Each structure stands twice: as structure tokens, then as C-alpha cells.
Amino acid sequence: AQLDTLDLVVLVALLVGSIAYFTKGTYWAVPKDPYASSAAAMNGAAKSGKTRDIVEKMDETGKNCVIFYGSQTGTAEDYASRLAKEGSQRFGLKTMVADIEDYDYENLDKFPEDKIAFFVLATYGEGEPTDNAVEFYQFLTGEDVAFESGAGADDSPLSSLKYVAFGLGNNTYEHYNAMVRHVDAALTKLGAQRIGSAGEGDDGAGTMEEDFLAWKEPMWAALSDAMGLQEREAVYEPVFSVAEDEPKGPYSAHNPYIAPIVESHELFTVKDRNCLHMEINIAGSNLSYQTGDHIAIWPTNAGVEVDRFLQVFGLGDKRDSVINIKGIDVTAKVPIPTPTTYDAAVRYYMEVCAPVSRQFVSTLAAFAPDEASKAEIVRLGNDKDYFHEKITNQCYNIAQALQSITSKQFTAVPFSLLIEGLNKLQPRYYSISSSSLVQKDKISITAVVESVRLPGASHMVKGVTTNYLLALKQKQNGDPSPDPHGLTYSITGPRNKYDGIHVPVHVRHSNFKLPSDPSKPIIMVGPGTGVAPFRGFIQERAALAAKGEKVGTTLLFFGCRKRDEDFLYQDEFKTFQEQMGDSLKIITAFSREGSEKVYVQHRLKENASLVSDLLKQKANFYVCGDAANMAREVNLVLGHIIAEQRGMPAERGEEMVKHMRSSGSYQEDVW
Ligand code: FAD
């Protein structure tokens, strides 16, 4: 043939290329292929005109199978993708898919013998090539076809090229599957060796898929023979990485586990106060705990307070608008998972019920709805006593505080300012009241529901977390009034994540631990919910005793108001007593039964010689509960007891307690 390379149509381009294409490319990339990660860069290079050489490209990327497609509507491309994936998964071929216009083809005569090229070609309109295959088609079927080596049509220039062909056509058109027929004929004429038959799918008959399936099995068999491929069990390789929206472990202070509450009940017998016992299941979460650890509960704000907040800041109408929160400065850490809604941000992520800071109130002056409220806010910001009288002593949260100033809405306050100025809603900690030895997958908590009216305040302060837990308890027990105080919790959580009585939790490990030797005596002081960890301690020792282990004296000082009102776990302690016999001693202090208020520290003093004896036997001493008063007094009383019982000066007693603290035999879990 007459060759004039200048006349040669140098056809089109290269690799994968476009962004859509890049996605496809990763579709069948063998994940551990060392070249896979460079595909994007390569594609970019190809697009920019650098790499249009398919032989070179396959070499560089370690591929031995290219699947070219000529596609108009995407169907041929899709079939090409499927073939690539199947070739990779079933036969271990290193496949790549290529838009036929992305590569040059005058060098197809250099296509290595040990590799394979597929042509998946749709016929368009009246027997025409698809747009992306026009040049390829013209080149291959043209009069003056010539290749890089200089060989022309008569020299069998493609004798080293093995190929597979499949066409997509429509028999209602006259030139049914003309594209694949003509290309197949041209390739054969040029000396290339077809593997299997040239398949034809018929869209007109609606049998495209069946035609494809029927064609491909014998084709794979023929290809296996030709290339010596071993079919293997198809290994699934995902195309997309799909990350669950739900946070997954490890669960931590940054990533709570949405735990089911499996049981809950009221511990008090009085109507006006509540103390909750809850069992939280951590099975399957990879969370673990040890007796004496803490569990953190991630609360939800009460509906009424969310409503109030949104109303005050004029966000009520657009509460469900989807918002994206981004740091304007790259270092600003967004405290709220985003996108979110105003409602979800306020309900789950912002501490909107907390006491208000004077400084924060001051920053709102610039956005006040009118001059009078602005003046009032400025005064509150500048006058500490006035602020205490009007805001702090009233126990107002931010929205209540603004409502006390004006009934107008603060619509001008940027939401960013609210995110910046208010704390992120904090998890609250609870001393785990179960033993990990007895129930390793179930964490018990003992929580008194906060509902207090401070002197002078016009309203009750309802604790965020404990009232939320109360609502969950009510729901779990089918109580007709799940929101006992009309607080209307969204119990199902953001995007219904907490559906079915779940609560987000994480575990915090503590040093508040039983002695490793159960025969060592222990003294525990835990009035009120301070008894929580000691229920766990006693549960553990009772179980050990029931197994026949020797358990040392286990002395508990417990205090509450009245024996038949708020004596926590009274019945359980009776059972433990049966298991432990004399080794369990419970000494109680009821502050509202007699004419005089009796507290645990009084009982401690009364039992000075017992306490002192146990300390001589190397007892550990534990205090849990109220930090402000009780724990301090217990510390003092113990110093006195030691000094007195051992005939030492008072200061020596204090020093002994200090020493006990530093050596770990005096442990506190107080709040
Ligand atoms: P919050 O909303 O946090 O309110 C708490 C208190 O803050 C209110 O009672 C009120 O006095 C004040 N307050 C809130 N808002 C306002 C306002 N707007 N104006 C003025 N004052 C306001 N508790 C238990 O019941 N059992 C336990 O076993 C237990 N273990 C704990 C262990 C540790 C290590 C710690 C740190 C704490 C423990 N707590 C325990 C306490 C518990 O973490 C919570 O603090 C408690 O349950 C109250 O949480 P809340 O969200 O219901 O109340």
C-alpha cells in the first residue's frame, strides 16, 4: 500500500480522562493494583495530550486487557464496564476501560500479543458509528489505512492483536449492528485475531441483555483458552466506598454509642421526686467497663426549651431549613455535625438551658430589636449586681433571659454568634451502679432527676439530662404521660437515630476501684445517689461470696431523707446481705425521720472504733456523692477518728488521711 504518514489520520485520544470517566476507571481497578492510584494523574496527562498511546498506557499501569467502547447513550460504556469488572473478578485480568476516542490507534500494530483488546461498539442511527468512534471507524475502514510501523492493510499489520467484539444495535434499522460488523471485518482483514464470535445485541427486539449474556460465556471460554486464563471464584470488589451515616466505634467522648435502654424504673416511693434506675445494654458495641467507671449520657434538650429558643431568635418558621455550618477560618472547628437544621442544632448540640453569662448577654446588645431593649442589655452587661438580680437569681436560660427583657424577637442575632457564644451540649457523667463482673454488657445508672426551684426564682430549673432520661423511662414503661413536666422530648433523636428507647453514651474509665483482693475490708460512704458505685461494689462482692470466695468486711454508710421514701436499693441490699452474711454491714442515716437531722458523717463518728479497726486492717475508704459539703465533712471526720482512736494530735489524723489519699486507700468519686 501507498503510505504517507502525513496523511494518516492520527486519531484520538487517550485514557480515561473526564471526571465521570475517572469514576468508571476506579470501578474496576483492582484495589491493590499499585498503579490504580496513579490512574487519575495519568488520565489528566492523557487529556492534556501527553498519553494517547494505549500500548504505553497499559504497560505503565500494568494492564493486560483494554475494553474500548464506542457509546452514544452510555449503554455500550456500561457493558464495557461490566466486562472489565467480570474479567478482573473472574479471570484475574488487569482490565481498564477506555473511551475509544481517547487513544491513538495507528500503533495498534504494536499491541502486545499477550494482551487483549475488547471493542464494545454501538451502532448509531443509520449504521453510523457513535460520535466518539467516528475517527476510529474512518481510520480502520479507510482506503489508506497504515500503521506506525509503516505496514498497510495488505501486510496484516495487526497480526499481534487479539480482540473481542460486541456490538449494540437495533434490528429495526436497515444497517443492523453495522458498526461492529464493519470493524470486525476490518480488523480481521488487517490480520488481527478475534477471540470468540463477534456478539450482537438487539435493542429492537428488546433482547440486548440476553444477547449479551448468551454471547459472553462462550467468549470468556475462548478467551481463557487463548490467554491461558484460570477462572477463579469471583471476588467482589466494591466500586464505591459507602460510609455509614451512623457513627461507628471506637466509641469515645467524640463518638457516642447509641445504646438501647433495656430496663428502667423509679427508685423513690414519693411522687414529687424521681430517681431513676436504668439498664443500658452495651453488648456488641465494643464498649467495656469496669466496676467503678463512669458512663456519659448525651442528652437532648427539652422540646419546650427548643421552641422557646427558636422563637426568641426568630427561627421558629425556618426551624427545619437545612443549614450548612462551615468555619470561615480553616482553624475554626464546627461543633455541630453539618448539614443540619436550626431545630436539630439547638435540640441536640447547643447548651441552651444553662445559666447565662453576662458577657454573652452583652454581645447581644448590638442585635437588640429596639433601643429600649438594647439599653436594658447594656445595663445588664455593665452592672453585675443588676444582672444577678434580674437574670442569675431567676435561673433564666438565654431565651428566658431575653424574654424577660422584651417580648420582641431577636431576629438580627446571627446564628453564628449563638453557636460561638453558647457551649456545645455536654454529656453528663454517671457513676456506674453495676458490677462488670456480674453484668459485663449491661451498665446500670442511678440518677436523681434534677428539678429545683432556687429561692427567689420564679420557675423550676429542670436538669437537661435527667429529665430527658425520665421521659425515656416513662416511654419505656408505657406511661401515658411520657413528658411528665410537659417538656416534650424528641425521643427518636436526629434522623430517628435513637428510635426505640436508645440513648447516646460513652464510657469513661476511672480510678475508683475495689481492691483486687476481695478479702480486704472496705468502707464506703455514699449518701443519696452517691450510693451508685457502691451498689456495683456490693453486687460484685455478693457474687464473689455466692461463689464461695472469701470476702472482707464491706461497710456502707448510706444516707437519705426517709427510710420508706428514698432508701435506694433497700430490697436489693437485703438479697446481698443473704449472700454475704456478716461481711456486709449497712449503716443508715435518715435526715428527716427524727427531730434532728442525721447525716452519714454523724454515723461515721458514732462508729469510730469500727472504722478505725478496719483501717488498721488496711481497709480502703471510699466516698461518693456531693462534693461541696458531704465529701469535705467526711474527710474531716475521718481525720478526727484516726487521731482520736490512735491517741494522736488532730493534725496527725489529717495527715494520715492525706497519706491515704496519695497511696490510693482513700478514694473519692464526687460531683
Ligand atoms: P443540668 O441541666 O446539668 O443542671 C444541673 C444543675 O445546674 C441544676 O440542677 C441547677 O442547679 C443548675 N442549673 C441548670 N440550669 C440552670 C439555669 N438556667 N440557671 C441556674 N441554674 C441552673 N448524678 C446522679 O444522679 N447519679 C450519679 O451516679 C452521678 N454520678 C456522677 C459522677 C460524676 C463523675 C459526675 C461529674 C457527676 C455525676 N452525677 C451523678 C451528676 C450528673 O452528672 C449530672 O450533673 C446531674 O444528673 C444533673 O444533670 P442534668 O443534665 O439533669 O442537669
List the SSEs and their pairings.
Blueprint: H1 19-28, H2 39-47, H3 54-61, E1 65-70, H4 75-91, E2 95-99, E3 116-124, E4 128-129, H5 134-141, E5 162-169, H6 178-189, E6 193-194, E7 199-202, H7 208-227, E8 257-266, E9 275-281, E10 294-297, H8 303-312, E11 322-323, E12 340-341, H9 342-349, H10 358-363, H11 371-382, H12 384-390, H13 398-405, H14 415-421, E13 428-431, E14 442-448, E15 451-452, E16 461-462, H15 464-476, E17 502-508, E18 522-525, H16 532-546, E19 554-560, H17 563-566, H18 570-580, E20 584-590, H19 600-606, H20 608-616, E21 620-625, H21 627-645, H22 650-663, E22 666-670
Parallel strand pairs: 1-2, 1-3, 3-5, 5-6, 5-7, 18-19, 18-21, 19-20, 21-22
Antiparallel strand pairs: 3-4, 8-9, 8-17, 9-14, 10-13, 10-17, 11-12, 15-16
Helix pairs in contact: 8-9, 8-13, 11-12, 16-18, 19-21, 20-21, 21-22
The chain binds flavin-adenine dinucleotide.
Flavin-adenine dinucleotide binds next to strand 13, strand 14 and helix 15.
Write a compact overview of the structure shown.
The protein has 671 residues and is of the alpha/beta class.
Write the CATH homologous superfamily of the largest domain: Flavodoxin domain
Total domains: 4
The Cα radius of gyration reads: 39 Å
Low-confidence stretches: 1-48, 241-245
Query: What is the CATH topology descriptor of the largest domain?
Result: Rossmann fold
Small molecules held by this entry: flavin-adenine dinucleotide
Number of helices: 22
Mean pLDDT: 89
Query: Whole-Å distance between the termini?
Result: 95 Å
Beta-strand percentage range: 15-25%
What structural category arises from helix and sheet content? alpha/beta
Range of helix content: 25-40%
Q: Strand count, sense and closure of the main sheet?
A: 7 strands, mixed
